[in-house]
Write a structure and sequence with these properties.
The chain is mainly α. It contains two helices and two strands; from the N terminus they run E-E-H-H. The chain has one domain.
C-alpha cells in the first residue's frame, strides 16, 4: 500500500477559508497528494474509484477521462503509471484553474 502524503496550503485562508486545502503533486507517484475539499477526501492512494462528491469542479470530465485511460491501459497502449500520471495532471490543472494559478 502506498503512503498518502498531504500537503496543506499555508495560505488556505486566502483561497476561501480552506475550501481546497491540499493539491496533487506529480514529482513522486509513490507518494501522491490527494485533494480535500470542504473537509471531504476526494481521492485515496491506490483506489482511484472516481469522485465521490459531485461538488468538485470537473467531476464529469475526470470520470470520463478515467474510463478512457483505463481502456487504453487494458489494451496495452499505455502503462498504468502513464495513465495515473495523466489523470493526476488533469486534476492538478483543474485545481490550479479553480485557484486562478494557470
Amino acid at each position: 500500500m502506498k503512503k498518502i502524503k498531504r500537503v496543506l496550503y499555508p495560505e488556505k485562508d486566502v483561497y476561501g477559508g480552506g475550501e481546497i486545502v491540499a493539491r496533487v503533486y506529480m514529482e513522486d507517484l509513490e507518494y501522491p497528494v490527494y485533494i480535500l475539499r470542504s473537509g471531504r477526501t476526494m481521492y485515496t492512494a491506490d483506489t482511484y474509484i472516481g469522485v465521490k462528491n459531485s461538488i468538485f469542479v470537473g467531476y464529469n470530465e475526470i470520470g470520463r477521462l478515467k474510463r478512457k485511460i483505463n481502456k487504453k491501459v487494458k489494451q496495452g497502449y499505455i502503462t498504468e503509471e502513464q495513465g495515473i500520471r495523466c489523470i493526476l495532471t488533469t486534476v492538478c490543472n483543474i485545481v490550479e484553474d479553480e485557484l486562478g494559478l494557470l
